[in-house]
Amino acid sequence: MTTIDLAVIPGDGIGKEVVPEALKVLGKALSGTGVEIATTHYDLGAEYWQRTGQALSDEDLEAIKGHDAILLGAVGDPSVPSGILERGLLLRLRFALDHYVNLRPSKLYPGVPTPLAEPGQIDFVVVREGTEGLYCGNGGVVRQGTPQEIATEVSVNTAFGVERVVRYAFAKAASRPAKHLTLVHKHNVLVHAGGLWRRTVEAVSAQYPEVTVDYAHVDAATIYLVADPGRFDVIVTDNLFGDILTDEAGAITGGIGLAASGNINPEGAFPSMFEPVHGSAPDIAGQGIADPTATISAAALMLDHLGHTRPARRIEAAVEADMAGRADGRSRSTAEIGDAIAQALEA
Ligand code: NAD
Ligand code: IPM
Ligand code: MN
Asked: What is the mean pLDDT of the chain?
């Protein structure tokens, strides 16, 4: 028996509602495979912060480093000042565990209603840099509250950090049928960071002659995602552009409730972390209506990452079968969707 030692962080809001559905589906997908899951729950999030004044203790961080992988729901709550949990918990994990690849696949499944494309026409993956850019916390405020207040937020782009994520993106593109890579940036304005990204892509492309490469400024990329999403295969981009584009990528493929994400440390020096692209959705939390599909698909990404490709494919197939039945537009609860996908695994 192989055991996956899984850290589970349900977090806040709908994170707590969708994670149990993903665990249910994981259990079903692995039954009889010789692989089992041992979970350790970390009750981090708004309540923990209210109680302790900390978003993530050093002890919990060290303990989390010892697991094989992490499944996270979502963090962030209106009762906590903005940024405390997002930076102190989620980004702290991504940075401490060196999740420099944030992998966000987008696929349009048959049955998902959208006027934008036919099923099969959207199938791309965003490789979002996860440890640098505007997310570093490099900045500050002086003269706060005065008319002379100055706020800076400086984007950090290192040759090392850009090169390793660009290399990952090329390898990903080379492994896919279309073998196409699009760099998305804004090098017409952000000439310093954009120049580094562009030169890095040029340099690495010499080692991947089979991969075709193009470029889009991020503003134009938001148009192409809606107007011509079929042009994309692998998109490589920085942390903030990738954040924005992947919410849009969710929206064009049926909704943010379907979009999965892996925060990956490709070398395996630290556990990788799998989560939906969406957040804690305070506007619908507590109602049992959040779509758990994104978190279920994130669990499949996790199995893939850990080398359990067969159960990963089975979860994808179950999700696809469930999507196919959505054309009737009937609304279902979180648990009903989780049950339906778990049941499809029995077939
Ligand atoms: P959000 O992703 O939580 O919600 C955006 C919209 O999408 C809302 O209308 C919400 O109802 C809807 N939505 C999200 N997930 C859904 C699902 N599974 N099913 C159906 N509808 C869904 O983004 P937000 O409202 O900007 O942020 C809310 C909080 O979550 C903030 O504190 C934010 O910082 C945090 N956040 C956390 C993560 C994360 O943990 N990875 C990601 C994004 C936002
Ligand atoms: C996401 C979220 C996070 C991000 C926030 C909550 C830090 O929006 O996972 O997409 O910006 O990366
Ligand atoms: Mn986001």
From this structure: 97
Q: Which two tokens stand for residue 335?
A: 């648990």
Is residue 101 within 8 Å of 107, Cβ to Cβ?
no
Q: Region 19-23: what's the mean pLDDT?
A: 98
42 is catalytic: no
d(C-alpha 235, C-alpha 165), whole Å: 11
The token duo for 183 is 């760099």
Residue 45 confidence (pLDDT) above 90: yes
pLDDT, tens digit, for every residue of 92-147?
A: 999 999 999 999 999 999 988 787 888 889 999 999 999 999 999 999 999 999 99
How far apart CA 75 and CA 11 sit, in angstroms, is: 5
100 as an active site residue: the answer is no
> Which amino acids are annotated as binding site, given as ranges?
94, 104, 128, 219, 243, 247, 279-291
Q: Which positions ≥6 away from 326 have C-beta within 8 Å?
A: 111, 112, 113, 254
Instruction: Give the burial class of 217: count Cβ atoms within 10 A of its Cβ; 0-12 exposed, 13-18 middle, 19 or more buried.
Output: middle
Question: Which pLDDT score, from 0 to 100, does residue 171 have?
Answer: 98
For 254-299, give the DSSP string: T-GGG-EEEEE-TT-SS-EEEEESS---TTTTTTT----HHHHHHH
Number of helices (H), then strands (E), belonging to the chain: the values are 12, 12
Of the pLDDT bands very low, low, confident and very high (cuts 50, 70, 90), residue 326 is confident
Whose CA is closest to 253, among 323, 317, 203, 166? 323
ipTM of this predicted structure: 0.99
Tell me the CA–centroid distance for residue 244 and ligand 3, in Å: 6
Active-site residue, 243 included: yes
Question: Given phi > 0 = left and psi -120 to 50 = alpha, else beta, which region is 53?
Answer: left
**For residue 251, what are its two tokens?**
């929206």
CB atoms within 10 A of CB 50: 11
